[in-house]
Hints:
The structure holds 2 protein chains of 2 kinds. Chain A is an alpha+beta fold. Chain A has 5 helices and 9 strands, in the order E-E-E-H-E-E-H-H-E-H-E-E-H-E. Chain A has 2 domains: 4-102; 105-214, Alpha-Beta Plaits. In chain A, strands 1, 2, 3, 4 and 5 form a 5-stranded antiparallel beta sheet that branches. Chain A has a 4-stranded antiparallel beta sheet with strand order 7-8-6-9, with helices on one face. In chain A, strand 2 (28-32) and strand 3 (35-42) form a beta hairpin. Chain B contains 3 helices and 2 strands; from the N terminus they run αααββ. Chain B has a two-stranded antiparallel sheet with strand order 1-2. Classes of the chains: A alpha+beta, B mainly alpha.
Amino acid sequence: xxxxxxxxxxxxxxxxxxGTGLGEVPxxxxxxxxxxxxxSEHAVPPExxxxxxxxxxxxxxxxxxxxxxxxxxFGSSVEHAEALIAMLAERREEFLAALERVRGAxxxxxxxxxxxxxxxxPPPRPQSGTAYLLRRAEEERRExxxxxxxxxxxxxxxxxxxxxxxxxxxxxxxxxYLVEESGVEAFGNRVGELNTDLEGVRISSTxxxxxxxxxxxxxx
Amino acid sequence: MSEQRxxxxxxxxxxxxxxxxxxxxxxxxxxxxxxxxxxxxxRALRDRDVSLLDLVDRLLDGxxxxxxxxxxAVADVDLIYVGLRALIASVxxxxxxxxISLSASGPSLKASAL
Lengths: 220, 114
């Protein structure tokens, strides 16, 4: 065995891949029409560290200029091109549907932290178990409401969201939004506005990312 | 197979040396990022200097998964763990440098509000 084919993405674009793979190894198109896998050949699989993660990310981002792509999970490798071709053929319908879902869109990651309002009086020490439970329920309701106040306006600007609506009930809100390329700026502005408008909620967002969170079905 | 393992071990050691070097670069970038924040420049969507956690979420938890006998060979598993330890060490460095903290229940950004 001469090595492994390290696979970055699946596409239905006919364009040649831009840039190089990890370690500046040339990229190959491995076709199973109408799909193609984009890969580079290595003697051993790349090791996992933060430098190589960023390098992988850069390779995938360069590929986004080809058209719609489905990024593979880090570390996906096959022993030879035939294995990749067989996989592309076997899961063709799944990949074609996913490519349609993400075409023309990018992923934005949003995290929000709901904190107690520092200006608010600290609640009195609960006198009973019931009082404690009531207070805890009230806190949970407020956290849930705050999460929805972050989620709803952003979901309105997005094509899809993972996890889907109404599952954000934790103090630590984390979601990925699939946003039209042309809508990225507006989305970012909305995040900024929410950060200003929502008291006790701190929002951070990163992106645009390749659509890592939207490669599987049922996310719209 | 053992020869391949040995080769991987050597590569891991090389990677560790590279990381020490890269860490300085990281620190500089993080400092630059913090300075921008202190100057009051909002953290734009494109600003991914401190987005390692989001990167890890995506690359290791997202993306198309290829199943079965064509995924990583058993020998590679060791390598992944060596790398993960190094990655966690890196995250701890960032945590110290830029004030991102990791909760016990999972990663969360705590000090990089937009």
